[in-house]
Design a protein that fits this description.
The structure holds 2 protein chains of 2 kinds. By secondary structure, chain A is an all-beta fold. Chain A contains no helices and 11 strands. In chain B, a hairpin with a 2-residue loop joins strand 7 and strand 8. Classes of the chains: A mainly beta, B mainly beta.
């Protein structure tokens, strides 16, 4: 069966520090991969998605970047965090079929001080 | 224009009652899928139920059913015999064939079940 791992679960970082969140998927190949951000009590904002290694599409201009160095690995990064980067970050995967749901990792709660 | 609209920001329901969460959508794509997710306070997103645009029958999964009215472009989630553990945020989402398979999300409804 397929599983998705996302870490860390919680992160507290000072303003201006770098960021690296990692997500890996097991049990499937060539998944679509997604990074979302969710403000408290709000809906999901799509940040990046990837349909293959090295292929990254950005939905929102910001100081975040994403990379997909391997088929089942998706990394969210920043060189200098801003206070506005605080939030709940979710990684997800799905296959390229309309009727298949996205499956999510457990999320990372990021607090910027 | 909003493609997915959830008009109920919050709802209170008595335990054991049925509850309907509203979702309307907007698309010109003839082929699309509709999804409902549950997000408890712990944060994980849990897939509940799926309805395809060509499905003739309403989807059901245990206590969850989807009231799909294609002409009205609505896909309401019905939870029968609500339980305290149903308290959570609920999100409606849509995937269109011509949208690079991305999910379009509603703003969510916060459901609180009262004992």
């Amino acid at each position: 069966s397929q599983t998705i791992h996302q870490w860390p679960a919680t992160l507290v970082q000072p303003v201006g520090s770098p960021l690296s969140l990692e997500c890996t998927v097991e049990g499937t190949s060539n998944p679509n991969l997604y990074w979302y951000r969710q403000a408290a009590g709000r809906g999901l904002q799509l940040l990046f998605y990837s349909v293959g290694i090295g292929q990254i599409s950005s939905e929102v201009p910001q100081n975040l970047s994403a990379s997909r160095p391997q088929d089942r690995q998706f990394i969210l990064s920043s060189k200098k965090l801003l206070l506005s980067d605080s939030g709940f970050y979710l990684c997800a995967w799905d296959s390229q079929y309309t009727n298949q749901p996205q499956h999510f990792g457990d999320g990372t709660r990021l607090s910027i001080l | 224009a909003q493609k997915i609209t959830q008009t109920q920001p919050g709802m209170f329901v008595q335990e054991k009652e049925a509850v309907t969460l509203d979702c309307t959508y907007d698309t010109s794509d003839p082929s699309y899928g509709l999804f409902w997710y549950k997000q408890p306070s712990s944060g994980e997103m849990i897939f509940l139920i799926y309805q395809g645009s060509y499905d003739q029958q309403n989807a059901t999964e245990g206590r969850y059913s989807l009231n799909f009215q294609k002409a009205r472009k609505s896909a309401n989630l019905v939870i029968s015999a609500s339980q305290l553990g149903d308290s959570a945020m609920y999100f409606c989402a849509m995937r269109e064939v011509n949208s690079n398979y991305q999910l379009i999300w509603g703003a969510g409804t916060k459901l609180i079940i009262k004992p």
